[in-house]
Amino acid sequence: MAKKYANLILDKQFKIAEIDDRLYGSFIEHMGRAVYEGIYQPGHPKADPDGFRQDVMEMVKELNVPIIRYPGGNFVSNFFWEDSVGPKGQRPTRLDLAWRSIETNEVGIQEFNKWTEKIGSEIMMAVNLGTRGVADACNLIEYCNHPDGTKYSNLRIEHGKVEPYNIKTWCLGNEMDGPWQMGSKTAEEYGRLASETAKAMKLIDPTIELVSCGSSNTSMETFPTWEVETLMHTYDYVDYISLHQYFDNYEDDPVNYLAKSMEIDHFIKTVISSVDYVKARKRSKKQINLSFDEWNVWYHSRVGDNIIQTKDNEKKLMTMAKNPWRKAPHILEDVYNMEDALVVGLTLITFLKHADRIKIACLAQLVNVIAPIMTDADGDAWKQTIYYPFLHVSKYGRGTALLPALNSSKHDSKDYSDVTDVDSAAVYNEETEELTIFAVNRDLEESITLECNIRSFEGYTFSEHIVLENDNLKAVNTVFEQTITSKKLFDYEMENGILKIKLNKKSWNVIRLKKQK
Questions:
Q1: Each residue of 238-296: pLDDT tens digit?
Q2: In the chain, what is the straight-line distance between the N-terminal and C-terminal CA atoms, in Å?
Q3: pTM exceeds 0.70
Q4: How far apart are CA 93 and CA 416, in angstroms?
Q5: Which DSSP category does 220 fall into?
Q6: Closest to 443 in 3D by CA, of 500, 503, 397, 506
């Protein structure tokens, strides 16, 4: 058997781009227990006077999430924003058609803004371009961002919010090519509607940034022609195009599962090519960047919730069909294991390697619904396995993404060839004089020594090696036991600018170096 190896060369002059902090964003949709029994649960022993769970807030604060997409998702395509503002006692209860549940509107724009202020985050607001359109989007941004003296800005003031919300990032609908979406559109229909909405919204507030809907996923028949056709309409008015991707391991093939980050890399490159083709067609000097505003592992709960996907890509939630119209139903509550944490880490590494074009990314979602944080309605909150790689990259992945020259032994899986045994990305924080290397050893049987040439970082020494690992890839965390947590190892050698460090089999690694004072 050939010897496993991984060699990495890093130079502070070889840069990809400055990392936008919004790369570490997340997502809260009005579905399942994300809002009710998630971030908001009046009467819970750990709820603050506004009804927000303080244990959840502390975990979110630790993740340092700079932006949160809201209120959907599929939910937004039948969202009547007027129902979610004003006195709570006057807000109507509505049928949520996306997830066939009951929406009481106890938490709306006002409350969500208050919650994001408490955790130190900003809102990435989505407008309904499914069952509504231009006028409603204009009314919403006037309500949120216009200072005063008009119908909807005065209404906001009447509701107790004198200063504008000043929401600066807006999504023009959600997954509009999806047959499951309320008011789904053809590329021509969406492109025209989104461009007219974008023009009008920027007349009201020219300082905002707008995200145009990309294809719902790579398996859509519309991908990637949707990107080209819609951007031919929206290119001059928007700033980003969205990407959505979820991973699964239905076949229980961990070798193939851990190779799926290659698929997301291909997805990103295809969208960049499509965007830049439109740029060339329009002879434009403007660059459209990427908003990867839905991504995660999602498959565990699909079995329990009986979600099936038909040939025409129409999603059906059978459990909700049998027992619909409940408030905060227990749906999409994936319990994540060790191999899921590795896939999340590999995805974040891929994002860092495309930091020149990916400026926003939203882990979907944040609490209870396919989330890193779970809550017991009668007890505590706890951290799932995927919490940890996201925490590490959010904490140490601020600064400049470096261009890694990685040479690794390779293997093949069922669907992928030439998969590197080790995948890695690196971030240089010039202000704090820190270098961080993120690495995953995908090999299930062998440890691999990572040899890093960091000679351009003169005076830098080893600081710490944070590791997430478990021999059992199916190991999970629960409210009762944190089986998967990070630990520190010290098995390394460093001489003449060469760092040699052991990456244990099937492990997530954070290697930190600091300049000597």
A1: 999 999 999 999 999 999 999 999 999 999 999 999 999 999 999 999 999 999 999 99
A2: 44
A3: yes
A4: 48
A5: S
A6: 506
Catalytic residues: 175, 294
Handedness of CA 294, 297, 303, 305 (dihedral sign): negative
Across 115-258, where does the E strand assignment appear? 122-127, 169-172, 209-212, 240-247
- CA-CA distance, 141 to 311, in Å (whole number)? 38
The residue behind tokens 């740029």 is 279
User: At residue 296, what are phi and psi to the nearest 5 degrees?
Assistant: 175, 180
Residue 500 DSSP one-character state = E
Question: What distance in Å separates the CA atoms of residue 450 and residue 439, rounded to the nearest whole number?
Answer: 9
Which two tokens mark 90?
């006057």
Containing 94, the helix (H) or strand (E) segment is: strand 94-96
> pLDDT: is 310 or 174 the higher one?
174
Q: pLDDT tens for residues 425-482?
A: 999 999 999 999 999 999 999 999 999 999 999 999 999 999 999 999 999 999 999 9
Across the chain, mean pLDDT equals 95
Cα separation, 346 vs 393, whole angstroms = 11
pLDDT the model gives residue 306: 54
| Average pLDDT of the segment spanning 178-191 | 97
What are the angstrom distances between the C-alpha of 320 and each of 106, 257, 305?
Answer: 22, 29, 8
In sign, the C-alpha dihedral spanning 123, 124, 129, 133 is positive
pLDDT digits (tens, 9 = 90+) for 26-70: 999 999 999 999 999 999 999 999 999 999 999 999 999 999 999
Return the exposure string of 242-261: e unless at least 16 CB atoms fall within 10 Å of the residue's CB, then b: bbbbebebeeeebebbbbbb
| 37 φ, ψ (degrees, to nearest 5) | 75, 0
Amino acid at 81: W
Three-state SS at 315: strand
CA dist 357 → 108, 122, 173, 240, 289 (Å): 32, 21, 21, 9, 5
**In this structure, are residues 381 and 410 in contact, taking their beta carbons and an 8 Å threshold?**
no
89 Cβ neighbours under 8 A, 6+ residues apart: none
**pLDDT value of position 303:** 60
What is the radius of gyration, based on Cα positions, of the chain? 23
> How far is Cα 478 from Cα 336, in angstroms, rounded to an integer?
10
The two tokens of residue 457 are: 């970082």
CB count within 10 Å of CB 495 equals 7
475-487: burial string, b at 16+ Cβ within 10 Å, e else: bbbeeeeeebebe
CB atoms within 10 A of CB 277: 14
DSSP-H helix ranges across 183-260: 187-204, 225-234, 254-257
| pLDDT, mean of residues 81-87 | 97
Q: Which residue has the tokens 């050893």?
A: 441
Q: DSSP 3-state assignment of 8?
A: strand
Segment 396-400 shows an average pLDDT of 98
